[in-house]
Amino acid sequence: MWNQRGFTLFESLVVIIIMGVVLLFAALLSKSWRTNSRLATANTQVQSEVLHKLRATALRNPGAITDSSAAAAFITISGTTISLYACSAATCKTNADNVLLWKTSLPAGVSASIGGGSKTCLALTSRGGVTTSPDATTCIGPSANGSLPLITVS
User: Fold this and answer.
1) What is the average pLDDT across 62-73?
2) Collapsed DSSP state (helix, strand, coil) of residue 28
3) What are phi and psi of 114, to 5 degrees?
4) Per residue, what are the HEC states of 37-82?
5) pTM for the complete prediction?
6) Which tens digit of pLDDT belongs to each residue from 76-108?
7) Could you say which of 27, 50, 70, 110 has the lowest number of CB atoms within 10 Å?
8) Beta strand 71-78 with 130-131: parallel, antiparallel or unpaired?
9) Could you give the 3-state DSSP secondary structure of residue 125?
10) How far apart are alpha carbons 85 and 31 in whole angstroms?
11) Mean per-residue pLDDT for 26-44?
12) What is the DSSP string of 94-123?
């Protein structure tokens, strides 16, 4: 009678196939975790940095805007770049020579939009209210309840 030691070829193949399936699922899960992490990072960046800097700049009113309905500061979104501008008393148009105060890039593969639509500008007055004054075609208007429109990342 033989003294059997080790595994048969069939048993080894079954173990290798099971390990392959487990590794495949682990790779798929880690990909979704990385994607979710990039989105969470971008969302935090937009909500904490961009909106707070916009509101603080508008309330500080560096351009000494006296009209309470005119924009004091605005942000623009172009691809993965978000820029913060201060308006001067002479002009405040999204295509004019405004003062660029701050610029940031979103992580690779992440895009942002204002209000979930095609608008690329969000402007605030010196009192912190939303206005369309720089450019009504690209700037989103105030919401019905007066809160800031959402900047969504995807």
Assistant:
1) 84
2) helix
3) -100, 125
4) HHHHHHHHHHHHHHHHHHHHHHHHCCCCCCCCCCEEEEEEEECCEE
5) 0.70
6) 888 888 889 888 766 676 666 678 888 988 777
7) 27
8) unpaired
9) strand
10) 36
11) 82
12) TTS--EEEEEEEPPTT--EEETTSS--EEE
Which pLDDT score, from 0 to 100, does residue 118 have?
A: 72
Dist. CA 122–CA 132, nearest whole Å: 8
Q: Is the pLDDT of residue 17 over 60?
A: yes
Q: How far apart are CA 124 and CA 140, in angstroms?
A: 10
Supply 136's token pair. Answer: 């009504």
In what order do the strands lie in the sheet containing 99-105? 99-105, 81-86, 71-78, 121-125, 130-131
Give residue 2's pLDDT band: very low, low, confident or very high (50, 70, 90): low
| Average pLDDT rounded to a whole number, residues 1-11 | 78
Six-digit token string for 29: 């899960």
- Please state, in angstroms and rounded to a whole number, the distance separating the CA atoms of residues 131 and 122: 8
Are residues 130 and 142 in contact, defined by beta-carbon separation less than 8 angstroms? yes
